[in-house]
Amino acid sequence: MTAEIRISRHLVDEVQADLRRSHPFAHERVGFLSCRTAALVGDGVLLIPVAYHPLADHEYVDKIINTLPDQYRALGRQGMYGDFFSFYLCDVVLKLNGKGGQPVYVKVAGQSTGRCAPK
Question: Distance between CA atoms of 6 and 15, rounded to whole angstroms?
Answer without folding.
Answer: 14
